[in-house]
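Two proteins, back to back. First:
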Amino acid sequence: MKGSNLLRAPTSLSTSLPLYSPLKFVAPFRNPICFSHLILSSLKLHPIRISSLHATATQETVEVGETESQFVEIGYISSVHGLQGEVRVKPNTDFPELRFAEPGRRWLKRQILGREIIEEVELMEGRGHHGQKSWIIKINNIEKVEQAQQLVGSTILVLDEDRPDLEEGDFYARDLVGMRVNLQETGEPVGTVVNVFDNGGSDLLQVKLNSSLEIIDKNGKMKSEAPLVWVPFVEAIVPHVDMIKREMTITPPKGLLELNVRSDERSKKERRQLEWKDRKKFQKRVIAAKKKLCEMEQKHVFEGFRYGEKSQGSLLAEQIVGVNSQLLQVALKTIETPSDRWHLSEFLAAYNKETTRHVFKVSKGCLVSEDKKYTSSKITERRKALISNGKVANILVVEGKSFESEGTDRLIQRLVEMESHGTTPLILVCPINKMETFQNLMTDNDYFGFDPEKVWILEEEKLPVVSSSHGEHGKHKILMKSPWEILQTPVGSGGVISLLSSHNSLESLAAMGVEYIEISSVDQRYIGGEDLVGLVDSSEANVGIKTFGGVNGVDDDFYMVFSMKFLAQLTKRVNELLFDAVLRSNQHVEMVDKEWVDITPSTHNSYEFRSSVYTCLKGCSFDKVCVMEVVD
């Protein structure tokens, strides 16, 4: 183990709630996401530059003590460094060089005998520890380890009046609060900014609408109260900010102001009762999930509940509920007994020896052209009939590594070239941090012709990363990214089978009359002329595979067709999914002697679990599989 340092939960660490709850399944876009449940524990004081892409924000939290002066939080002391009284600081500012490298006055806020005090100290020197994303500083008159230990957990402050001057176009979030908001086109007053939320990608303004503004909810009813809505702080929507007049103008897209307006007319008492029921349901899920983890000897995951703030405990609870313990138990078995995975190349080698096989060869040139002569009229006609009658559903899988600069263009190309959009159910599988991007892409392009009632987004299946060594109970321990976050990685394309079994998705598709499901990656290279579903139906097969000459078994480039009947059987046998346990090096935190410790490994220290959709071929009868081979 290399590079360990102590990490104590700070006495005042502000953590905003996530923009989206980490649910595995998101309903169709007809149910707009509501931001009104977000509660900011403290107002962020950060400079913001309006950008056409996103707003950049620092994290300096306004703190008001018993003194008249206002302070700005710039970080907290996480541990002692060395034997000369130095301490390690976790920064909470975009100006670390200014705050920690330049000597001068600073203030410490800490708890002494149950009371919160703020005391002035003198910073002597500081240097960056970039490998740990922290700073090491020396405070005057702190010469011994024992003295430094008393400062661990303290919050470091500077005076509000010492805020750096910002460049033109940059704003402190605190200065935006209270500003009037007007429509640019008409000058009509919209409301007042009451809060700012740092979303990581772009900031959000929480605006309290004027009661005189005519806001229609999605039921077509006028809202008499003054609701709160969220407005993205980007140049396209907020083109002008006037600091002198204390006002800004906005050009909201159609429907933005109505997005988060409550659409029901239930009384406050009824809403509270529903909220109470939802909390009770969630508590039961947490209890059940904790019981499962206890049975797996993973109680250390719960340590974070004893530290931090309420919002951090809520985040940990969400993480625990999100663990697929059944799938994790299956994956853990592969560490001691590696699964006998059958890769696509091995399957094809055995398949080609069979006499009862269905192989259909097409050329790359034909596949991407409008020329349909490469296939029989029976297959083509059958494909058209199935798709036009809504018998085929599409699942597009986007992995995080695939969705880079060209990812949006590839996804748009796939969506545009799909046939009979209006009758085809569509499921997008993606990382949780891409779900907002997908939603905006769909709504901005009128769902590319798909029926909004038949469009869903599923978060990709993930599993916790576990230690490569055995813990105290002889088990591989789940690793923690922070005291309140489980370290997790995507399972891969094989996780689609687990997702379909977790959300009753197949039942919904069956009710729509779907008979076949196409599952493919957004990286699938040759688009157009997709007659594989027609081939599967004509051959009365359960599975269809498209392969590319000489390139087999590539997880991020696959195209398969499953019959609903066979896929239903697979989802009932999730415990038979095959995994690879891959050795990796992963930073994490551990509780050591009642202190949180950062662990930076020098060698492989953990297992990540991967599963390929091709493992579904294991045990599949050859006469129920057909192959479309793309050749040069």
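And the second protein:
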Amino acid sequence: MRKIVMLGSTPRAQRSLSSVQLPVDLECTSSAPVFYYSTSDFIYDLNDDNKKSEQHQKFKDLFMFRWECAKKENVFNYELNSMYKLIPGDFNLSIQLNIERGQLRRKPMRFHSVNEPFNALRWNFNKLKQNEVMLYMRCKDKPISVDRLDRHVIAINNSPLERGHSLIIPAISQSLPQVIFPATAMAIRIATDAMLLYDDESFHILFNSLLANASVNHLHLHALTWPYSSDIINRHMKGDLYVIRRPSWFISSIVFQLPSEDHFDKFIWNITKTVQYLNSKEVAFNIFFTRAHTLRTLGELCVEQTQPCASLVTAYIFPRVSIAGAKPSVSFNAAALELAGCLTAHSYRFFDTISEEVVLRIIDEQATLSDVFFNEICAKLSDLLLGIKSDHSSEKLEEHSHRVLKHSELTSPELDELRDSFQTFELHSPRRVLINNASSLDDDGASEFTFNFDHKNEKEKCNGSSSA
């Protein structure tokens, strides 16, 4: 049998210029296996046992087996030695103590723009060692990307947060920047596929854009399990296109859910269009993929489900304040996992003394957009996703984009100097919003932003239908 070398697994690997698809049964010299799957293997509702098959368990077992193999080869920077606790308060936050990650992880890079191009001179995933590659993903009946020579890699994160913490790297040899554009659909697609294949409610996939705590400018997503559920899945929202706003959660987010096979392409399209729009306006963002109950538009702000119900793939998109680059922190960096309420402390002192008030203040400083600016984004996205020609004023978004681009012309030392010269910030925590807006809360106990819909969508909503 002929053998081929998997592309993108070593620094010397080069992308083939051939347009001929390789036979799917070729043996690879790489020790990392190829996981073949079909769209019929997807689990849309994790609590529907009738839809599960051996293929689902195979993906999870192979994923963890390969991670454990890497552990035996000592490719990680440290042995996992973490502890957890829940933080008392309104948002049921959980926090992990992981001192080694704060001290031994690769120093995060600094960036100037959400759309910064790939730079081959800086560290990237083409420099992965062979024993750091866990497996490759290939869909047999619906290819992830147009070029079937692309290699979609799952590799270990050598400074893990938790057992199984890995990186998903779409089309590794293409050397795509951490922008998800123009490769948006491919990155969202592979994240969705992995979520639908992994048979575990505690499994999450994360994306951090540049200026939103991404540490490497090479397209990748994080995949990991977390022992505590994020309480964001229990939160109330409104609209056919769903939005969670403060104070329902401590940071506002745009939400899409995948209820069934019929909505697969629409789910990816919605996220793709949203991300492309944020990129075009230089708005930094994080995405948190998880399993959640059917989205709830009625009732209290937070209701924890006690009865068996659907467990569906759901994406929470957090538009946020841009930061010039991730810095080593004695507290935590507000990235995708943290905005979902799952925190990591790098010192025992912070872990021991942390309170919900401190967490909310840090996230206010690092991530929270003003309500006015978030509403402006939602209004634009509403028109975009519903196919309505927008006549909303875009002055705030254009001003934001211009400001980010202007700052991107500065060097890193100049940006540091600017940040150090400004010590004040506007505090707009969820608690303060709740107090100040008490008189304007609706019947459900929250002042929520809702999208405007045409008559047809209003009628569908009344009939109980929803669109993800």
